[in-house]
Amino acid sequence: MMKRLTALLLTLVAATSLGACSTATEPTGTPAYTVTRSWSNGMEEQAVVYADGRTIMTHEEHSERVILPADQMAALAAAAALEIPAGANSDDPIIGVTIGAGAPIRPAGLTKDSLPELLNRLLDSHTLNP
């Protein structure tokens, strides 16, 4: 009896896990914001933020997914309405920012609370409010 119960529980756990993975939807459409971070040692990082807050961050070969809350999406939108500060090719890392389907702005500067600085903070802390 105990073996049957254990087998049933394992089956339920496996079915639930498989179902959760298969029903997760991937972000679609044009990203709202994209940031790239290129380090002098060759390491590349990227964060792609969609309008619904779903975010995919890639640190070399490692990917992470987070969902930004509405207040953080509003902070990004407010920063995107401002001018993107210029960076320098000698910066380490070199930051590139794209808004929607627009052209990338690279190198972008890390002026406090600018879109590049907020997105850089997101790559570091997985939130805008570390």
Low-confidence stretches: 1-24
Strands ordered across the widest β-sheet: 4-3-2-1-5-6
Mean pLDDT: 85
Biggest beta sheet attributes: 6 strands, antiparallel
* Count of distinct structural domains: 1
Number of helices: 3
Would you report the number of β strands?
6
Q: From the helix content, strand content and strand pairing, which structural class follows?
A: alpha+beta
Can you tell me about this structure?
- The chain is α+β, with helices and mostly antiparallel strands and about 130 residues long.
- It has one domain (about 25-125).
- It has three helices and six strands; from the N terminus they run αββββαββα.
- The protein has helices spanning about 1-25, 70-80, 115-125, and strands at about 35-40, 45-50, 55-60, 60-65, 95-100, 105-110.
- Strands 4-3-2-1-5-6 form a six-stranded antiparallel beta sheet, covered by helices on one side.
- A hairpin with a 4-residue loop joins strand 2 and strand 3 (about 55-60).
Map the helices and strands:
Elements: H1 2-23, E1 33-38, E2 44-49, E3 54-59, E4 62-67, H2 70-80, E5 94-99, E6 105-108, H3 115-125
Antiparallel strand pairs: 1-2, 1-5, 2-3, 3-4, 5-6
